[in-house]
Amino acid sequence: MSYGRRAALQKAAFGIGILLAATRGTRAQTSEVRLLMLGDSITAGYGLARGEGPPARIEALLRERGRNVRVLDAGVSGDTTAGGRSRLEWALADRPQAAIVALGGNDALRGLTPAQMRTNLTAILDGLAARNIPTLLAGMMAPPNLGAEYGRDFTAVFTDLAAARPQVVFYPFLLEGVAGDPALNQADRIHPNPRGAQIMAERMLPAIETLLDRIPASAAG
């Protein structure tokens, strides 16, 4: 084989190698990430059309930012932290690589003790940690009619759990910027309307991106 032909073949092989490497890199970057959102009626988009709820809005915003993420809507209306704990295994059937835990509102509405909520959320967070699933914990606030002491104890559950788990991304209040605004909520003044759900998603986005960046490379794809 002549030197010129051998050099040409080597150059072609080198070019193919670069192309294959680039293809593998592109495939890795575009692999879909599954993000679980375990919650109650807020997550489930109560009173909203399909595609208007927080999971759909979060997914749309992430895709606009070039992140190939599918948000798994695991919201069940009326669910308490006990309900979320009982169905965690079911929610993990789709093998999510990251999770948002957005429960607690119904515990307050039903006047359940913060101690019960702490036990349930601890079990949920421990279950996710045992599977090496990066997690975002979204806090909630108790209605003022339950009293200042209950409100303090309720809020402390979320802050204490987050402080004890530095690996967990903490978003202090799920409805930040939306709660209490009639223009952003439905007539019940509890559940966000379409605009409220959009604002909720926009506000959570930086924390969610921090969460996604914590997914181990070995778990992506």
TrEMBL record:
Residues 38-199 form the SGNH hydrolase-type esterase domain. It comes from Falsiroseomonas oleicola. The lineage of its organism: Bacteria, Pseudomonadati, Pseudomonadota, Alphaproteobacteria, Acetobacterales. It comes from the Bacteria. This is Arylesterase. InterPro entries: Ester_Hydrolysis_Enzymes, SGNH_hydro. Pfam families: Lipase_GDSL_2 (PF13472).
